[in-house]
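S2.1 Query sequence (Ammonium transporter)
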Amino acid sequence: MSFPTMGQPDTGDTAWMLASSALVLLMTPGLAFFYGGMVRARSVLNMIMMSISAMGVVTVLWVLYGYSVAFGNDKDDFFGDPLEYFGLKGLIGGNSAAAAAGKAATDIPLAGTLPMNVFVAFQLMFAIITVALISGAVSDRLKFSSWLVFAGLWATLVYFPVAHWVFSFDGVTAEHGGWIANKLKAIDFAGGTAVHINSGTAGLVLALVLGKRKGWPTTLFRPHNVPFVMLGAGLLWFGWYGFNAGSATSSNGVAASTFITTTIATAAAMLSWLLTERIRDGHATTLGAASGIVAGLVAITPSCSSVNVVGALVIGAVGGSLCALAVGLKFKLGFDDSLDVVGVHLVGGLAGTLLVGLVAAPEAPAAVKGLFYGGGWDQLWRQAVGAFSVLFYSAIVTLILALILKYTIGLRLTPEAEAAGVDESQHAESGYDFATATGGSVLPHASLPEGTFDHDHRAGDKVEAE
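Output structure tokens follow.
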């Protein structure tokens, strides 16, 4: 069979996948609010910019060669042919190409039942948010120019090949796809390995190479805007239905099933995180609820097509409590993962991926039996090999990239720029104009959000809320 195949798309599937693509794109601004609210007021713009800039960098690379590397014909079990769809060759203007070939003008390049351009757009949104997720581990201290270079290199050398391993199935976009999907047959329905384990590992490595924020862990780096955090979590939950249910690539029963299991696991994870906080700290927090939502979404991502209601509840409950406990590891082990990318995305991704081997139910769309349903250890070892292969590959290549950038263009802000604040030093902007808000006078110290700077003090003394 030659690729791309030509034919007439299913209009219902196309409509659903266009909507899903838009939902997944919305997740990146949602992530920007989620991360932006968790940093101090003087870092909010930079945090938002790292997510938004990923939309620009990754999009350009994706249409040039990224899609071809991820979904072109397999080369040595490593990556797709980068020239097969270079510049989306043969995919743009499909009707004209079909007519020129003597076929009906309604015949266009397909990926399954979809116009291939719709599949290109859907997978692009995955690539964007995977890169953006890494930024949460390195707030307050990474040069913005270095972030842009890192984002492009990491997408090229890590995400695009890993997406090929996990998401490229034989006979869909090319004759031969990736080894995890087709040879190992590990289940990763929507990106537990390719997205969350991948980005969580990269965030850990980049944070280690960058080093700790000045003052961490003795200085409190409290969220400056918890309503932003909750808004971001809500947008992520909303957009995640495109992420998970959209990965069915069809408006069918699989999409409906994954929609339900995603909802169940997310609700269970939020409650599990809150319960863990209540037992450990004596109170449940709004920040904990938002974090529990994201932890549940992460954990159910690889498994949403392979579990029933009970399995979704288990994955949500385990993922929520496990991630709530894991965010404290950075204090015990001494790595400054600023916004808990490791605790939520790496740990949650691992949990959700491995639990498939235990609670996968035969009645679910994937029709696989986990250990608890009489399937033995077969699926669990497949899940483990897939998860840790991505983890080790991401760690090694990220470390090489980070060290190259550190000793060439530099990664970290200068001490002076870090003291001035990343928004001011990198973007010459401030998220909040306190002087304008008070009619030209400077707010008293008690009115400033904690961790901001009183700019009348030229020495840059930190102002603590009274």
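Residues 432-466 form one domain. The chain has two domains: 5-89+104-406, 432-466.
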